[in-house]
Each structure stands twice: as C-alpha cells, then as structure tokens.
Predict the structure.
Amino acid sequence: MSKSIRDEKLPVSSLSFLPFEGIRTFTEALSVGVMLVDVEGVLYHVNQAAQLLHQGGSIPRSGFPLADFSPHDWVEVKKVLATGIPQLCSLLRLPMATVLVSRMPVASNGVTSGVITVMQDINNFNAVVHEFPEYQNIVHEFETVVDQFEDVFLSLNSRGVVRHVNSAYEKLILLGRQGLIGRHIEDIQRSPRTLVSLFKQASSSRTKVTMPVTLPTGQIFQGSATPSFDDSGNLFRVMLQLRSPDPAPAEPEPAVAVSAAPKPTMPSAELQRVCNASGFTVHSSVMNQVVQQALKVSKTSSCVLITGESGVGKTMLASLIHNNSTRSSRPFVVINCGAIPEQLLESELFGYEKGAFTGASAHGKIGLIETADKGTLFLDEIGELQYSLQSKLLEVFEKKSFIRVGGTKRTSVDIRILAATNKNLAEEVEKGNFRRDLFYRLNVIPIAIPPLRERPEDVRAMIDQLIEQYNSQNGASKKMSPDLLRWLLRYPFRGNMRELVNIMEWLLVMSEGDTLGLQDLPAKLQQEYQLTEQAQVAPVSLPDITQPVSSAARISVPQEMDDVQLSLKDAVAAFEKSYLERAMKRYGSIQAVSDALDVHFSTLWRKLVKYDLVQKHPVQEKKYVS
C-alpha cells in the first residue's frame, strides 16, 4: 500500500493492510455512518455521516480511542473482537438521533483485525416507506384492525425480533412502538419473561404452545404462541397472544346520586413507567408536574414549546408527548436546527426538486418535514434557526404546506409540531433575532424543564437505574461507595442529564473493582473534588430548638462565635447545619421539617445532602401523589 498522510500521523494499526484512501473515498460517498476500529480500540477511520450522527455529544475522530467518545460502544466492539460474532441491527440512542447499528468483524489471514460499525438513522426508514404508499396503507390497515382487540398481540420473526405489536401490548408494558419494533423479545426488560419461553418452545416444537403468563402486578393471562411457516417449511413468524381471564360478575350496586367527580390523575408508579418508556426517570415533585402537563397536552394537536438548559431531557419529553399521542404509530422526526450547516438547512428541511442546484440529486429529494407527514416533527434548538428560514417555517404552520427548493408546486403535510430551545425566545424577539409571529405560533403551550441540580431526588434515582441497567446487561455487580454517592448528589451537573449519564458510564466501564469510589472519577472531576472538598468546621454553640420555628427570626448569633475566626459564609453554613440537624431530630421526617421551616422540599433535600444529614437521620421519604 502506498504511503498516505495517515501513515505519517499514526502508528501502525492492525487494519493497516486495508487501502485507507480507497476506504475513505468509498465510505464518504455513503449516507450511512461507518466507523473502523482496530484491535487496540483505536478508530482507524470515521466517515462524515458517522460524525454527523454523533452531533450533540462526543464526536469520534480517527486516530483516537473509541472509549474516549463512547465507552459503551467500545464494550460492544470488544465483544465482537473477542468472539468474532457480528452484532446485527441493534438500536443505539445518540444525543440527536436513534440509529440502527451493526458491528461486524474484519478478518485478515483468519484472525480478527478490527470491527466495522455501520449506523443508519432510523428516521430515514420512514422516508423509504413514504415512497411506497400502497405498502404504507396495508400496514396501517393491519395495525388498525389488530389495535381493536383487547388481547395482547406480538408478531416476531424466526429470530425473535419484534415485527408488529398492538396497542394492548404497548399499554401493558408502557413502551411505544418506536421502542419495540426491531428489538429482540429478550431485550425488552419490561415484557413478561414467560413470553420468551413461549417463543422458544413454539420455535423448537414447531407447534402451538399455551401456558399461563404472570405479570409483575400478579395478574395472570393465558398465553399462546403460534408458529407460521413458508412454502419451504421454514419458520418465518411466531404470533404471541395474551388473553386476560374473564372477570367474575360483579354484584349490582344500588344507584346513588353522586356529583361528577374529576377524573383521577395517574398514580406515581404508573407515571414512572410511562416516563421510563421515553427515557425519563421521575422521582421529584417538580418533574412529576412537568410530565403531567406533557401527558395532558399529548392528547391534543397543540404546538408545545419545551424550554430548559442543554441536557435536561427536552428531546425525551418530546418523545413522551409523541408516544402518548394518537400519532404514536407514525414517524417522530427530530431536527436539530443548530446541527445542520446553514447552507444545507433549507434543502434538508424542505427537500428539493431535481436540478435545483449544482450537485443536487438527479431524482430530487424529499425533506425532513415531509418525512414527518401524519406524524410529529420535533424542532430542537429552534432558537438557532436562521432568520431567513423562519418565515418559510411559519408558512408550514399556517398553510400546512410548503414549496420544495427549486419547485413551484405546494406539498401538503399533516404534522404536529413540537419545538425546544435553551434560549429565552422572548428576549431573542426583542433583540431582532427571532420573528415575533413565529414565536407566538410556537409558544402555544410552554413547558419548562428545571435543571437537574434543582431535583436531587431524580439524580439519586437515575444513578440507581444506570447501575442496575449496566449490571443487568453485563452480568456485573457494581455498586457505589457512600462517599462517591454523597459527592455526586452535591455535584451541580452543569450538563444536566447528559453529563450525569456520561459520568456514570465512565465510572461503570472504566472502574476496576465492584465498588465505585472517588478514585474512579475522571481526572478532571477528581481535581474538582479536591477543590470543592471543604475543611471540617469546628462545632459552634447554638440555641436549642425548643420554641416554635416561627421564633427562629428572633435568635441572635451566640457570643461564642466572636472567638471563632470564620468567614461569614462558613459561619452561616455552620449555623444552618446545626439548626437543620436539630430540626431533623425534633420533627423526624423531611416532610415535617419542610412544613415547619417553610422551605421547599427539594431545597431542604439539597441542604441535608450538602451537610451529610440524610445518612445520620433515617427519615420518611415524601410520597408524591399525582
């Protein structure tokens, strides 16, 4: 192989036998993302499509270890390197896209020399379906008929991959079809485990199998699995069915005149299962309210503007709204207005006709807006949309149609629009950066997501969930030390959920032992820990809490403080810690102290964690009732 620029920059790789320039020329012409990783875990080549799919997170670069960008991906690649067994068609959620991933070994002289990873944006498949309207109509008719049944139906292929589900199954495990189609039945953790046994027995026996299926709730269904075969006798489908037992007839109740009661809201446990289906973990009252608002608006066609800092989960909330709407079986198209280059944004959004500009496809191209027809269009980072395109987007709102680049005819679309931003759009309007009319079109129902640092209950729940998920997937038994847990609960998480997930992934993948400690933090966070670690403050004599808390305003600083050389900040902290500790001893629960001191529950929780008072005093957790 002729010496290339790459050969001069990088050491010899196990994939050096491949013609690098030829690979680069070929892969850059593809619309799918391609990454080549050698046996050392170093990225030999990453095409531009793969880098675009990683926008919003760590973008992989040639010549650097894959673990630096995606530790979880490196774990999966190592499995392929070790076994030589390819991984086909698994779903991977990236910050800006959900992709279908296949990882295949690259062999040289019978030895695995690396792994090639191919990623396809799952939303692109929607565009393919739209090219075959007759097929789309058949699929829609099939789904409509099956959705009428109260029984649970799943259709699996011969390998156990879900091909179709009905709405009864979605309601049973509270997971939308986008999170089900294309996944193996064993990978759906909320699904009853007996379904896996049903599938395997029907596949091996090649006959119909029936058995009782017990749900986690204790409810028992009658399950059956029916295999189907093609003309050659090969298994190609297994239909699973769950039928609920007929309820016992209830005793008739006497008619009583009652006033119409308001519809009860969803219980907290039910709410959490709905949230988990879209990636949310909700244990705080403030997020409980946010999700309740989202579920209420999901049943309408109103435009929703989701605001919040970067990484708080705006895309997840939009997904939750879509998954619980009447359009849940239709496309959910995510467009990051800040990730697409300005010169390409218009053609990507609206599509173009053939010959519209130099380099345009000879067949033209449909835009992302058109692929969302009959579904939901989510405009992320809408505040980054260039001013010249805002008026054209406004037309989509008002006329439900648009004109392709280089075209003359209007294309009609039926879409529900959701938008999100981390900017204050009202201020952007006053600065002249955002159209006022478009702002009012977007801001029909605003929902604000608070930052993670304001909901410590969610931080703890997410940590536990990520550890449990990692242990389940990798057969591990990782746990967290109390010191590390206390520090993470105090950490501000400037990147919100995205930063928490990244930190936990680093800890879980890179730690050596089963107990995660402060020493396992990345070097940058270890430095921050050293800087934020405060020296122990000498105890200060303070008055006891013997009077009602309302008299606290009359408490004066004791004379003993004059002899202690403390800064005002440390003195206030010492007073606050001692006062809260005595309040906890007196009232016994976080909720009681919250009511007595007239302080918000979340604020009190953060202070108790800050002063290490949660572990010292067993308290009753607040139960949120939606």
Observations:
- Residues 1-11, 247-267, 534-556, 617-626 have pLDDT under 50 and may be disordered.
- The first strand starts at residue 33 and ends at 38.
